[in-house]
Amino acid sequence: MLKLDLGIDNRVAIVTGSSQGIGKAIAYGLAREGVNVTLCARNLGKLQATVKKIEQSTGTKVLSVQADLKNKKNIKALVEETIETFGNVDILVNNTGGPPPLLFSETSEKNWQDAINLLLMSIVNCCYEVISYMKKQRWGRIINMTSFAAKQPAERLVLSNAIRAGILGLTKTLSNELAEYGILVNAVCPGWTLTKRVEDLALTIAKKGEKNFEKVISGWADTIPLGRLAQPEEIANLVAFLASERASYITGTTVQVDGGYIKSLL
User: Fold this and answer.
1) Per-residue model confidence (pLDDT) at position 8
2) Which helix (H) or strand (E) holds 224?
3) What is the reported pLDDT for 34?
């Protein structure tokens, strides 16, 4: 991944859910652009290993904070440690792992509440913590990672289908409220991407049907005009751009990075 000269050297970013997958790729991409990055995840071992790799590869300072995004106190501590270490927060990338793949008939009330806390309330609480700092400097970038499922519901993903669509509504509302402060708020909808979560979903589907793992993956690829699943770095490239000075007139948008998978016009 090459440096893109995006004008964000020495900015400070928090990337949640960033020990692996798309979140890790985003943190890596921002660090390569000279951004000081705070990573957080629940698994401390994976988190520290990711931080070490990013620091060694980019030479950029990286902070790791173990946090459960369903816990408001953890989110508050995440932001406080970032401020203590770097002095500010310029960029917030709200990224989380997904809830378990389920049919509506298989979900419990606890499944719903856990998914709401993980997907939606984690974004709400992170935004509450950082917006005051962004307002003071009249500059900020908030990027909410959702999923193609927010626009085109996917099989066995009823929790993501329902809740991630709500994140798009939150994104548009915040973009309107915060524009006067120079804070830009956008959402990104990744398509099928080769991450561990997608591999786990393919395994779940394979166990419940007649297709094996490889056929599930190739079946998804066949539905994508580009004929393949995305690499996490391809999602990260867009996020780095939206976080940059080069995206100074883009707010309230939802951008899909899906190889053409979503069929709708909007």
Assistant:
1) 95
2) none
3) 95
Strand partners, 256: 189
Alpha carbons 96 and 36: distance in angstroms, whole number = 20
Helix (H, G, I), strand (E, B) or coil at 146: coil
pLDDT for res 123: 98
What values do phi and psi take at 225, rounded to 5? -55, -35
Can you list the pairs that 150-157 forms with residues at least 24 positions away whose Cβ atoms lie under 8 Å? 150/187, 150/189, 150/254, 151/189, 151/254, 151/256, 151/262, 151/264, 152/261, 152/262, 152/263, 152/264, 155/205, 156/101, 156/102, 156/103, 156/201, 156/204, 156/205, 157/98, 157/101, 157/102
In DSSP terms, 184 is beta-bridged to 141
Q: What percent of the chain has pLDDT over 70?
A: 98
What span, in angstroms and rounded, lies between the C-alpha atoms of 175 and 153? 24
Question: Domain map of the chain by residue range?
Answer: 12-192+230-257, 194-229
- The whole-number average pLDDT for the span 113-134 is 98
Beta strands 183-190 and 140-145 are parallel
AA letter at 104: F
> What band does 193 get if pLDDT is binned at 50, 70 and 90?
very high
Check if the beta carbon of residue 78 is closer than 8 Å to that of residue 14. Answer: yes
CATH code of domain 12-192+230-257: 3.40.50.720
What span, in angstroms and rounded, lies between the C-alpha atoms of 208 and 216?
11
**Taking residues 51-69, what's their average pLDDT?**
95
Residue 197, pLDDT score: 79
Task: Specify the length of the chain in residues.
Answer: 266
